[in-house]
Amino acid sequence: MKKFSALCLSLLVAFAGLTAKAQKFSYGIVAGYDLTKVKYSGDMKNNFSSDNKSGWYVGPKIVFSTVMGLGVDASLQYSQRKLNITQDGYIDGNEVYDKVSQSQTYRTIEIPINLRYSIGLGSSASVFAYTGPQFGFALQNMKFNNLGTGNNFSRENLNTTWNIGAGVRLFKHLEASVGYNFALGKAGKAILNGVGVNEGESQDLELKYKTNTFQVQLAYMF
């Protein structure tokens, strides 16, 4: 975590340096469609799975660029997506438990800050690639039924992810891009109370979640 914090700090310093040298500034609106899947870690991870669920996001966006092609883009997004958690069927002694799947709406404020590199394709088009951290802030506590104690996704959690993607700008105003957003830390957790590990034994186990997201987005820059 310390290495990641140092990396983010270094990137922010680099971003600040680029924006100070920026030759062009533009602002606009970005909106996108995403597919999110929950990944698990912890003692019970093999007992759970997840389906891809769709969502959307929208918000203001700014872009700083230099004559060298390097630049920075950042946005402030309202994000709303479905998260699916599936507890696979299992047998515990003489009891048979069926597969249970739950989906809930997850609302967050997302702040991606990306370093980007653009290559011009004439006066009316350019292609670009981008990468950088994204910081997500949950707008509500969220609890899945019969899945441990406490809130599975809490407003107290800062969900840190990383973006990578590429796109095209047309006619100096319209941007279209595709990207992948993968988790660097847990987005939530569950404490599973009194889970049987060996016959006649039980203990509390922790199940952690991460969210990975595929994104398609459009932006109109003024």
Word description of this protein:
The chain has 222 residues and is mainly beta. It contains one helix and 13 strands; from the N terminus they run H-E-E-E-E-E-E-E-E-E-E-E-E-E. The chain has one helix spanning 2-20, and strands at residues 24-42, 48-49, 53-65, 70-75, 77-87, 90-92, 95-97, 100-120, 125-138, 158-170, 174-183, 188-196, 202-221. Strands 1, 2, 3, 4, 5, 8, 9, 10, 11, 12 and 13 form an eleven-stranded antiparallel sheet that branches. The chain has a two-stranded antiparallel ribbon with strand order 6-7. The longest helix is centred in the first third of the chain and has 19 residues, at 2-20.
Q: Whole-Å distance between the termini?
A: 38 Å
Instruction: Give the count of helical stretches.
Output: 1
Tell me the Rg in angstroms.
21 Å
The rough form would be described as elongated
Main sheet record: 11 strands, antiparallel
- Report the uncertain regions: 196-204
Q: What proportion strand?
A: over 45%
Quick one: how many beta strands? 13
Provide the structure class.
Answer: mainly beta
Name the helix and strand elements from N-terminus to C-terminus, one letter apiece: HEEEEEEEEEEEEE
Mean pLDDT: 79
The helix fraction, in percent, is under 10%
Provide a compact summary of the structure:
The chain is mainly β. It is 9% helix and 65% strand. A hairpin with a 4-residue loop joins strand 3 (53-65) and strand 4.
